[in-house]
Amino acid sequence: MSHEHDTARPVASQGSPGRRVDAGAGVKECRFCEMTRQHHPQCARRLPKRIILVRHGESQGNLDMSAYTTTPDYRIPLTALGAEQARAAGRRIRDVVSSPADGAAGTPNWKVYFYVSPYARTRATLREIGRAFPRDRVIGVREECRVREQDFGNFQVEERMRAVKQTRQRFGRFFFRFPEGESAADVFDRVASFLESLWRDIDMGRLEQDSSCETNLVIVSHGLTSRVFLMKWFKWTVDQFERLNNFDNCEFRVMQLGPGGEYSLLVHHTKEELEQWGLTPEMIADQQWRASANRRSWAEECSSFITAFFDDPKDSSESEDEEEEQNGKIKALQ
Asked: What is the model's pTM?
């Protein structure tokens, strides 16, 4: 699809976030971005510089599984170590968003917007992370139920849960549904819904400040939910998801906008880190493309992990030649 602009519809002004102006006033809407959800670097739409996924700090449930027997999952608190981990994560995230990009001069003008799971351990993690940020750097905070933990049921009997999780290993982590709870596939559905809302927030200018400000989204959530978020965003397959390793407590992943208009894990992180997280060579190659300054045609060259579905796929010309040769042999036998 070519990068065309629609002059018939009103769009948000870049100078005044959230305000709608007529296209006749000179502001144009990018049809490429609207149809593909892929950002073109020449488009006036302003995307967040980074989307940062953070797992909560160490919780009492991480320390002792018996805590789930008497305490609802959503009320499980952080440990003292978990709070310390969160404070350290806040300082590291602040360093990431406040550092100038490679080759850039000076300190960027930056702000952060937080989304947080409603669970006690994620809200407590956010409070500790927030200590690293001056108030004037925080655009806002929103509690978002759709990025909550996978539902494992109500009160969880420790021995029973151990047996159930062993069954999950045999069945498959993505499709196994916990009794009275959710599967990772269920989490995928609600994360997909959240992403649609996130795009609307971006389109309506709810997250931006001014044209000189870099906006950073920080999503404080849970290990599986964050992996599902990455799966949905980067269009990873179920098999690729099952290879992924979980986040450590207060570990975070940085999806950063590259010069070609795509988010990539390889702008901030290294190839070695991605390998440690369980990404395959094909997945890493896709991240390298996304981090590249040379934008490829979405319709023709976007990564769709073709080799994950076909054995030794051939291009169309080879396939047509082989088909004609086979048809000729059949006719000769008739």
From this structure: 0.79
How many Å apart are CA 239 and CA 1, to the nearest integer? 30
Give the separation between CA 149 and CA 187, rounded to whole angstroms.
Answer: 8
CA 104 to chain centre: 26
Residues present in the chain in total: 334
Helix axes 120-130, 80-98, angle to 10 degrees: 50
In angstroms, the Cα distances linking 141 to 112, 126, 185, 233, 245 are: 9, 10, 27, 22, 28
The span from the CA of 208 to the CA of 51, in Å, is 13
pLDDT (tens digit per residue) in 135-185: 999 999 999 999 999 999 888 887 888 888 888 888 988 999 998 899 999
CA distance 230 to 270: 17
User: Which tens digits make up the pLDDT trace of 55-88?
Assistant: 999 999 999 988 999 999 999 999 999 999 999 9
Q: Which helix (H) or strand (E) holds 113?
A: strand 110-116
* Residues 6 or more apart in contact with residue 68 via CB below 8 angstroms: 61, 76, 152, 155, 156, 158, 161
Q: What sign does the CA torsion over 238, 239, 242, 243 have?
A: negative
Query: N- to C-terminal Cα distance for the chain?
Result: 46
If phi > 0 it is left, if psi is from -120 to 50 it is alpha, else beta; for residue 205 that is left
Sign of CA pseudo-dihedral 273, 276, 279, 284: positive
Integer Cα distance of 56 and 118 in angstroms:
12
Query: Catalytic residues, which ones?
Result: 56, 149
Distances (CA, A) of 92 to 34, 129, 258, 269, 303: 34, 9, 21, 14, 31
**What are residue 116's DSSP bridge partners?**
143, 220
Question: For 59, which DSSP code?
Answer: B
Structure tokens at 236: 């990873």
pLDDT over 80 (residue 333): no
